[in-house]
Structures are given as C-alpha cells and as structure tokens.
Amino acid sequence: MPELPEVETTCRGIEPHLQHNPIRKVIVRQRQLRWPVPSSLSRHLKDQTVHRVERRAKYLLLHCDNGTLLIHLGMSGSLRLVEADKPVAKHDHVDLLLADGRCLRYTDPRRFGAILWAGKNPHQHELLANLGPEPLGASFNGGHLYEQSRGRKVAVKNFIMDAHVVVGVGNIYASESLYRAGIRPAKAAGKVSRKGYERLAAAIVQILSEAIAQGGTTLRDFVGGDGRPGYFARYLHVYGRDGEPCSECGAIIRKIVQGQRSTYYCPRCQH
DNA sequence: AGAGGTACCTGGCAGC
DNA sequence: TGCTGCCAGGTACCTC
Fold it and tell me: Which of residues 229-258 of A touch strand C (CB under 7 A)?
C-alpha cells in the first residue's frame, strides 16, 4: 500500500494529534512484525509525548524526549487515530493510548512493517544510516543519479528503486516516473544520459509532489477499503494499464517483470 | 562490488 | 461453493 506520498500524508496527519497528548498506555496484540516489536516499548513510551513526527524514506520517526519510535508501514500497514474504545479488528496489532481518550492504531495485515525503538540518535540507526537522499530534498537531482549510475548494469527501474541511490521511489512511481521521462525501464542504468537523468529526477520530484498534494493517492483508496479504484484511472498513466492505449501516442502499454515486480511502459514513448 | 534471487505474511481475485 | 494458484504498494539479507 504505502508509497512515499502515503507515508508523508500519514506523517502530517498524525503529528498535530500527538503533540501535547501524552501516551498513557501501549497495547501490543501481535509482536511478530518484520522484526519483533521490542518488549521495552511500553517502558519507553509510557507518559512520553510525541513532540514531532518526521519522515525519512518510508520510515516515520515519532520523536519523544527520551528517544524515537520508528514505524514502517511495509506493504499493507496503516496508522489511524481512533477512539480508544473502537473495537479492534483482526490486524490491529498495536495501540498507543493517548491522554485525550483516543489512540494511534497500527494495522498491518501482511506484517511486513516494523515498529522499533531507536533511542536518541535515530538517524544513526542501522536502518536509516545508509539511506540515499530524499527525492524532495536539496541534494537530489539528475546529476546525483548520473554520478551514481556510471558503470551500473542494473536496469534503471531497479536502480531508482534502490534506497541507497534515492529513497522513496516505490514500484508504482518508478514506472510512472520513467514514463514521464521517456526512458525504458529495462535500460541499463549506466547507459542513461545525463539529460535523461535530469528528466527523470524532475519527473520523480513532480510525481511525488503531486501525489502528496492529493493527499497520497493510494492511501485514499486504502482507507476507503475497496481494492484499487478511481485514482488509478485518473492519475496513473502506465501502472496497471497494460493492454490499454498510451494517453500520449496510442501505442499499447506493455507489462514486463523486473526483479519479481511488475513494470509498465509505453513502447513508443520510452527509449 | 554489483547483480539477482529469497524471504517475511495475508487477502483478494481469476479460473476451474 | 470451494479449491488452487497467482498477484499485491517494501526491503533486508543471502548467494553467486
């Protein structure tokens, strides 16, 4: 479910509700996520206040005075503020009960997500320390992609999904960005020109920014709860559209598999 | 070092 | 209706 725009939307959505609203109790119903939820969680969080929520890559960092809670939503995770007495559903794994009678509820059917305690220097945490630049940050541009890609034989689509190169480009937006930049997903990363990477970096920035402005495209349907409707048809040009005509040139959109993930592209617009 | 595959897990859907 | 197989938005870790 969550690509970077959804994580960003979650980040902005929960922060104002957590500030000045101390955590009174932690309930862990399912400890077995990607890594076990630490048993020390309750001790660390009880009576702490989250004073700031930050996003780094697709991790959420809930900063408290004595350390930081790291949350990753994996493929199917979500965080919602609900009344504390709302009945729990099957995959509601963790609740942070708040002083105002509500709770931050972590739900994750596939349990690929993570909830970890990071201590006082969270950016030094092993999961965060070696990540590439933020796509919406100042150090990300076409030059960076160009430099990083010299000599690399990996397909450019896999290259831009590598978190050591740039974080936050998930499977949907990888296809969409390459389409907008006019680059074939299977092309070797080292063979893409500087100009190509300048278009690609610009496309990544534009597409992620637009998705955030819309409130996180995929989160919308996830919250709605039913499959993957409306927004796909409206905002995505190639993803999930194999067999349909390209909106630019009319050629039939193709689907290929790269690294066990589906990739979509227009054979006429992308070279 | 880099490329590619595997693993984690549940649910929804198509096809029979 | 029920079964089977396949697919799904992520990413750390393994092997070659």
Answer: none
Active site residue A245: no
Check if the beta carbon of residue A159 is closer than 8 Å to that of residue A149: yes
A242 residue type, one letter: D
Reported as a single tens digit per residue, the pLDDT across A159-216 is: 999 999 999 999 999 999 999 999 999 999 999 999 999 999 999 999 999 989 887 7
What is the C-alpha R_g of chain A?
20
pLDDT tens digits for A11-45?
Answer: 999 999 999 999 999 999 999 999 999 999 999 99
Q: Note the CA–C1' distance, A74 to B13, in angstroms.
A: 22
User: Which member of A55, A56, A58, A241 is catalytic?
Assistant: A58
Rounded, the Å distance between the CA of A46 and C1' of C5 is 46
Which tokens hold the place of A150?
Answer: 């010299």
Q: How confident is the model at residue A102 (pLDDT cuts 50, 70, 90)?
A: very high
Residue with nearest Cα to nucleotide B12 C1' = A227
Note the residue count of chain A.
271
The answer to whether the C-beta of A34 is closer than 7 A to strand C is yes
Q: Quickly give A162 CA vs C15 C1' distance in Å.
A: 19
Strand pairing category for A59-64 and A114-117:
unpaired
Residue A228: alpha-carbon gap to chain centroid: 17
Strand order through the sheet with A67-72:
A52-56, A59-64, A67-72, A114-117
Distance of CA A106 to the CA centre of its chain: 16
Do A70 and A118 contact (CB within 8 A), yes or no? yes
The H-or-E segment that residue A188 falls in is none
